[in-house]
């Protein structure tokens, strides 16, 4: 089965940067979509970014220009580079996977059946 393990979270000052990684395993699909989502306490999950297996990224408006999603296909590892972090970016960040490239978007919050345990990002 698909397994996702996030890493790279931590405590950072406003304006700082972090890079999240997601070790993905358990799939052989050639077409897929990887996404990053976040959830702050008391709030609904929010899509942050997504990238299709063909490399096309998509971003939530709230992070556009600050966050960059990328992937190392050889290592089955998607990354999320986060710059100019703000206190409102504080949340648990989750890596997610779905088969196929249809609607590969962070707005497709309910369309990713596989998610990791998350890594905490605190901006303070």
Q: What does this 3D model show about the protein?
A:
- With 124 residues, the chain is an all-beta fold.
- The chain is 0% helix and 50% strand.
- It has no helices and 11 strands.
- The strands form 2 sheets. Strands 2, 4, 5, 6, 9, 10 and 11 form a 7-stranded mixed β-sheet that branches. It has a 4-stranded antiparallel β-sheet with strand order 1-3-8-7, with no helix packed on it.
- Strand 4 and strand 5 form a beta hairpin.
- It starts with a strand and ends with a strand.
- The model has no long low-confidence stretch (mean pLDDT 95).
Mean pLDDT, to the nearest integer, reads 95
Q: Uncertain spans, ≥5 residues at pLDDT below 50? A: none
Radius of gyration: 13 Å
Strand tally:
11
Helical run tally? 0
The rounded distance between the terminal residues' Cα atoms is 37 Å
Write the H/E string, N to C: EEEEEEEEEEE
Profile the largest sheet: 7 strands, mixed
What is the percentage of strand-forming residues?
over 45%
Q: What general outline do the C-alpha atoms trace?
A: globular
Helicity level: under 10%
